[in-house]
From TrEMBL:
The lineage of its organism: Bacteria, Pseudomonadati, Thermodesulfobacteriota, Desulfovibrionia, Desulfovibrionales. This is Large ribosomal subunit protein bL21. It comes from the Bacteria. GO terms for cellular component: cytoplasm; ribonucleoprotein complex; ribosome. Keywords: Ribonucleoprotein, Ribosomal protein, RNA-binding, rRNA-binding.
Amino acid sequence: MYAIIETGGKQFRVEEGTKILVDRMAADVNSEVSLDKVLMVGGAELKVGAPYVENAKVTATVLDHVRGDKILVFKKWRRNDSRKLQGHRQDYTAILVKAIEA
């Protein structure tokens, strides 16, 4: 069984035992989180939500809070001798999907 969930404005296809990186969540490490924005549940029977599947949720465990690789943002304005270099590191939460209920 698999599910398509929405968290942090992004969509992920998950199965039981899947480890994914999502945008930073306000949850402690080793705590259980319940993701109830389930867009679709697949398996023997396909359930598609409008926009979300009713009474469906995905239970996951928070593994760690990590930061992504540094991304350099470079902007240059022509004919002005002006430029700006800025770095960015995105905060992520690593989660492990435990169960899918539909």
